[in-house]
Amino acid sequence: MRNDSEFSAEGLRQREVPLRHPDRLYIGGRWVAPATTKSTFEIIDPTTEELYFRAAEAGPDDMSQAVAAARHAFDHSDWPLLAPTERAQWLRAIADGLRRRAADASQLWTRQVGVLHTASVATMERSGVHYDYFANMAADFPFEVRHRPLQGAFGSVVREPVGVVGAIVAWNAPTFLVAYKVAPALLAGCTVVLKASPEAPGEAYLLAEIADEIGLPAGVLNVVTAGREVSEQLVRDPRVDKIAFTGSSAVGRRIAGICGDRMARYTLELGGKSPAVVFDDYDLDTAAKTLANAECTLSGQVCTSLTRVIVSRHRHDAFAQALGEHFGAVRMGDPFDPATQLGPLAMERQRDRVEGYIAKGVAEGAELVTGGGRPEEFERGFFVQPTVFANVDNRSTIAQEEIFGPVLSVIPADSEEHAIELANETVYGLNATVFTNDVDRAHHAARRIRSGTVGHNAPRTDPRMGFGGFKQSGVGREGGQDGLLSYLEAKTVVLDGLPTGYEPLG
Fold it and tell me: Which of 199, 203, 209, 269 is catalytic?
């Protein structure tokens, strides 16, 4: 007989932290205590505002040791010399480990940042797919391409690992942000220092446990949790060949400057202020419902969120009302409750940030359609009501700056041409969607919107095809062949004769 208490929010929330060594760092294939610091990071459950667990804080010596371990593994082990198909087997083992630990990962994601548990469970069951995807690339990716040289008898372009990678991830979706960096880096033959977010380090610890279980060679993957100063040490370290970062555009600019000074490679996946352009031939209510549902994902704490909704002026009022009705009707609550549609924000400072932007929207003259405050029904938890502003000036603060919360702005346009102009009038260019029944109109608009991804009639991203941004939304791409190429260096080889094992070109 079913026990309903097992399916309640309290029944689904596990009290035990599913990590073995949160008080340690994973360096050189061993779990080690922090060398110098006695402080820890407190991870707070955003629903209960209670302490979930404490994680070890890496100090300068710890970061230096992690880099040294990765450097030694790259320079003195056979890891970068293995055939890509051999390294692919390690990726498959990691993918299998993630599938085995999916329930643990779903607990961590919800308890750390408040994502709906129903979504977390469904997503984590597929968490190994990115490692499998890159493993599958090993068989046919052109790691070496033969050429006929202008001089000499043999020519080829070989793609070799860039070296030691410092991977720095944000707190909102760590499992996947880690996968987009670690999977291609390992397939390429790089070694990695993974710097976990102090707000949500659990998934990085989980990956380290899996690496330890499968016997991944020592130093190939190192996992530390650190604050800003020690993280910057990783970026500055001359032993690190490449930085892969996901986070704010402000931090990304600083990383780019540091890497530029020492000619280090980098990829940056940064912020967004993404437009949804609703053309006149598309049903307003359908678009409003789609956008309201999409903004529930991680309570709007997603860089690809479609937060600027551009609609023709003569349909603006009707659309704003429909969007306000759909988004305002969203059920807020405990993310472990299966009936909840919108959970809390990840942390108190994030709630303060969102409330500050809402206040700016009101002060700058935008019309508040729904929301705008904290829900009175919750005594605790970092909740903010789903909020819609109408008649938003595209030059205003809430239309130009990334809020990272459940706040949508409706912006009137005078024509389709004006709508495209408004879509592009931002320093960002990460994501966009065009709502229209005419696929040719959608294609035409997609080619004119300056954005790394453009979807049709719904938010659509596909990391297998590549993901990244224009302008201040980033540099480079993650996922797809472009995502692997960024962890490889091209080397031209020209020889006087034909080396053993090679056939003459036909």
Answer: 269
Does the annotation mark 295 as catalytic? Answer: no
Q: What is the pLDDT of residues 222-231, one digit of tens each?
A: 999 999 999 9
pTM over 0.85: yes
Show the domains of the chain with their CATH numbers.
Answer: 7-270+472-491 (3.40.605.10), 274-456 (3.40.309.10)
How high is the pLDDT of residue 506? 78
190 catalytic? Reply is: no
Strands (E), 37-86: 40-44, 51-56
- 290: three-class secondary structure by DSSP: helix
Contact 362, 372 (CB under 8 A): yes
Per the residue annotation, which of 190, 259, 296, 303 is the catalytic one? 303
Q: Is 461 exposed, middle or buried (0-12, 13-18, 19+ CB in 10 A)?
A: middle
Query: CB of 310 within 8 A of CB of 467?
Result: no
- pLDDT score for 7: 55
Q: What would the pLDDT profile of 365-394 be if each residue is shown by its tens digit? A: 999 999 999 999 999 999 999 999 999 999
Tokens of 406: 């459940």
Are 360 and 392 spatial neighbours (Cβ–Cβ below 8 Å)?
no
Residue whose C-alpha is closest to residue 364's, from 409, 297, 307: 409
Strands 431-435 and 453-456 turn out to be: parallel
Between CA 64 and CA 51 the distance in angstroms is 29
Secondary structure class of 274 (helix, strand, coil): strand
For 172-220, what is each residue's pLDDT tens digit?
999 999 999 999 999 999 999 999 999 999 999 999 999 999 999 999 9
Token pair listed for 414: 């005078």
Among 384, 333, 379, smallest CA distance to 361 is for 384
